[in-house]
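Dear Dr. V.,

Thank you for agreeing to look over these. As mentioned in my earlier message, I'm a first-year student in the group and I'm still getting used to reading structure tokens, so any feedback on how I've presented them would be very welcome. I ran two proteins. I've put each sequence directly above its structure. The first is here:
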Amino acid sequence: MVSLRREGWQVSNSMVGRILTHLKAHGVLKEAVRKRISTHKRQPPRPYAIRKPQEYQIEKPGDLVEVDTLDVRPLPGVALKHFTAWDVVEVDNKATSFTAVGFLESLAKRMPFPIKALQVDGGSEFQAAFEEACQERGIRLFVLPPRSPKLNGHVERAQRTHAEEFYEVVDFPLEITALNQSLLAWEHTYNTIRPHQALDWKTPMEYIRECHPELASAAYLSHMW
């Protein structure tokens, strides 16, 4: 409209709209075919992971275990990847689908109850080999929609606790094996000593024993945690 008025044409917006509509309807004016030039690539279809169905019911621990990673940068030039599944923690030098498989194996060993489903974000570490490992184990894998970390709110809150009560206050070793040993000690504290407000000030062990005794025996809990 501004360009037309500069050329001396006194027309209204509605008139221009009607003219354009008429020309398009009669094939005189055709829309240009738009080409995508965005650098953002569409993610390929996931072979196994899906969005969590609305009808999926969560009734007991293990029905849905949230998993996430946390960047740990204790020194300039040092970057570690911390894996959390709320009650189980582990760290590696990098987050790949293969290191995520390693964490899945630790998770299966150390969780005091069977894992029915996992929920992850769209990170590449939770694709490829990790997705295949979940399928092989018969663990359902739910992937979050983009930019929706609040849907993994439990593990996000746990990440904050691990950062504030371990990484920010403990003089931990940087060597991975030694650091994971320190994390095992912290995991024991987190699950058996530290009260959790979300669990009515019970520890996770106390919560399992009191509220879901059918999931694991006391001896099993004692062995794992």
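The second protein is here, in the same arrangement:
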Amino acid sequence: MTGKPSQKEEEYIFKQEMKKLQKAAQEEAEKQAEKEKEQLKELHWMRCPKCGMELKEISFRNVNVDKCFSCGGVWLDDGELEQLAGKESEGFMSCLFNVFKSE
């Protein structure tokens, strides 16, 4: 069977081409979003969220914390508050830990 494709065949081919173009556009958007995320991370990495100055990592009670020597802010990563305060089972500190604990 040679000749011109039918209208249904043309529609099918058109839809397949549109799906390919849409998938390519989506992949490009995902790549761009990942690139932007990496650029933002690089721009803000080890910067004080309060004043924007550079953070320095210091050791305090055998825990590396991030300190801003411009505004005096101290920033903790996940789990560092518990390490600094110890493993208290009762009282105010345990209630405080429960508030900040990720679930």
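From my reading of the second output: The mean pLDDT is 84. The chain has two domains: 1-45, 55-100. Does that match how you would interpret it?

Kind regards,
E.
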